[in-house]
């Protein structure tokens, strides 16, 4: 069994807390099952499932902390893991930045669990692969894709009486469709909590269309262009920037949010006034657990409000040093937008470039959050409101800070998950002026 | 693809209980020096093999893995976190009805592994219904009961934690004394205890060790609001704690006095240099964009080799198996047939899973194939790829290259990059002599920003230290440098490689690939090399 009920989890955590004689004790019990199927060249390549459950016990004597884990839950095992954590704590060096365990929190349950996703079987996964592959085979195209789903629970407790329990599910599907001659490539991605919102047959049509339409791309000169970034394309840059909203780094003078002469840019206008980004664990489109990795209760929190920096992320230690309230780390990012779809934005574009997806985004200069990366799987030239022809992929060197000051229009946000992001996100398609492409890529 | 996971690790410093899943579980330090009994592992493996056969599998391999890691993280005068993790379990892969199936369990009982083997077989049978071509495995010899261990002198897991903490805090103090504003230093230690058994008749017990000692030194000028960092010039290595002895014989001093390191690292000395150079970077002039001859130190070149040669010559990418994530490759099979000129005559690039001190060195890969060395590019011509058992037949090979790896017992093994290295030049050539001939160039030391497209044509690289070369002499430090390449043009612009006395390894602890994503550790060796007429851009921007 890898999913414990709330009562089962609480019984184990209560025993752990009672067993500890340390000044304080925090425990996290989590586990679940994940399954996946991978296909390429119109064939299933790998597929499997993994089960795991794990109890982490952390105790403190003064400012000395010890942590131990175990995956057996009988009384003797629980006793063993608590004693081991205590032994480690006694040997540990004092942590001058030690923060005592959090107090009792109030968690409002969020809708992170779907019975339909929890019930996914190997046969269902194989069917998703088949539904993706069959239309590609018929069309003389080549599909490569991946479906991963999980069902899990997390329970947390500490010696201050805090307790939380929640279950969650997720499913993430991506598929790349290429022409047999390798001259065209399209892609689609879908991330859901509830698998019943997913239809492989519907999504694969998007990747098929882009694969066909992207063949025989023409080369445009690198330079500054008006671009429409589809939500996935924008998400990679925006979520990357969010890793650098740490208050301490800004206060220490080593962030784009540091101020000349000292201090940080909290409250300052850094972006176009149309930019608002917030985190909200209860958002119905991208629900996440109502606590962060330390157990702090997540609340709706503006990060950027009307272009101003509304919140920086204060760790509990740094908040105490600066006389501020600590902030729970966000699990999702929701960006405000309008009502228009990507297609609507294209129709209203005189000249520009449509970007399906951005890829291999890396920091070039943290001083300005200058990022580099490439376009991929469908890049098109737009003229007079119509997609005129596919173009070769570009490398960009652009800062999301500069990009979010060059907004022409924002469309309707959609749920996306980034290639390398830990955030669940709602990101709008966006038309931006003067986006900087620095070289051409021959890659398809 | 080099992962950004290292970024996420900095979050471990704040007392979080949630570890990235690939780290496994936190354990007590004393557990890091123990091993599982081989007889018990064989008993478990035999139970799984038997259950797989009985449930209809035609092939089965079992990997019993115990993955131990220790991370010691510090900043300035503080230990931020000490994390000991252990992840133990069993991964079982089978072929049934011509398709692969995989299941994993953390249950170390014969019942649990037998059940997982049956589950893997059921998954394989479900997959077989949509499988057009049955899996073809290249033969692998039955090695019987064998073992292999990384040839380390001192097991880092046995070094007392206090010694490690003392070392890092002395490194930090040295950097701060030399004028650094901030310093983060870390030790990452890995021990993979892997037991492999298959229905082919091999029982392979391996004990693999790796070490990495990264640091970042930051200089801040609060008045101007400018900050610059200089990362350590160490390399992650397949060595024990002896790597940190600071053996003077393993120092490589550049013509302008920058100290680089081979198989031994002096972390305190490098911290002092990093502090001085980070401050120098604050004032260094910005590069004028244009074409330059680049002189690339091995501490830099490893990453360019990794991205523009290592990945595009992975056969699974070439064939399209990674099309949905990491991508495909420009180096298609027809290019091997036609003798494609990948680089100049100076460029010979070889794969080697046996290289001492390298991250990828093992006796046998994760599907029981003995490791070896082979050429990928010979005198500039593409001659081969890297492959594993179920794809070797596509190249007409009768055996695998031994490139199969899984980052955990719970991950499916697949093709991962071997150590891929640029062979040293055959003629005697020092770095000083190489620089003497450069009229308008940039000397780059250390790896920095990196990005490459999904077919490995267009790449952009930064670095740690950039020095302008004018008329054969290094004139001084410059900043805001990145170069952009098209892979074959770049390697064809290679006009010289220093001799073997300058040969060193660089590498990555966190090379990402696959879905679900897996990391692997891999080294890349080279001597200092020169590339003519490369496009350099200026990366400075203003946020107003």
Could you walk me through the main structural features you see in this protein, from its secondary elements to its overall organization?
The complex is a heterodimer of chains A (about 450) and B (about 550). Chain A is α+β, with helices and mostly antiparallel strands. Chain A folds into two domains: about 5-210, PmbA/TldD superfamily (PmbA/TldD fold); about 215-445, no CATH class. Chain A contains ten helices and 19 strands. Chain A has helices at about 5-20, 75-90, 115-120, 120-140, 200-215, 230-240, 245-250, 315-320, 340-345, 400-405; strands at about 25-40, 45-60, 65-70, 140-160, 165-180, 185-190, 225-230, 275-280, 300-305, 310, 330-335, 350-365, 370-385, 385-390, 395-400, 405-410, 415, 425, 430-440. In chain A, the strands form three sheets. Chain A has a six-stranded antiparallel β-sheet. Chain A has a six-stranded mixed β-sheet with strand order 10-9-8-11-18-17, with helices on one face. The longest helix of chain A has 17 residues, at about 75-90. Chain A is globular and about 70 Å long. The model of chain A has no long low-confidence stretch (mean pLDDT about 95). With about 550 residues, chain B is an alpha+beta fold. Chain B has two domains: about 5-165 and about 185-215, PmbA/TldD superfamily (PmbA/TldD fold, 2-Layer Sandwich), CATH 3.30.2290; about 290-540, no CATH class. Chain B contains ten helices and 26 strands. Chain B has helices at about 5-10, 40-55, 110-130, 160-175, 265-285, 300-310, 315-320, 335, 430-435, 485-490, and strands spanning about 25, 60-75, 80-95, 100-105, 145-150, 180-200, 200-210, 215-220, 225-230, 250-255, 260, 290-295, 350, 375-380, 380, 405, 415, 420, 440-450, 460-470, 475-480, 480-485, 495, 505-515, 520-525, 530-540. In chain B, the strands form six sheets. In chain B, strands 1, 2, 3, 4, 5, 6, 7, 8 and 9 form a nine-stranded mixed β-sheet that branches. The radius of gyration of chain B is 24 Å and the shape is globular. Mean pLDDT of chain B is about 95; it is low at about 5-25. β2 (about 45-60) of chain A pairs parallel with β4 (about 100-105) of chain B.
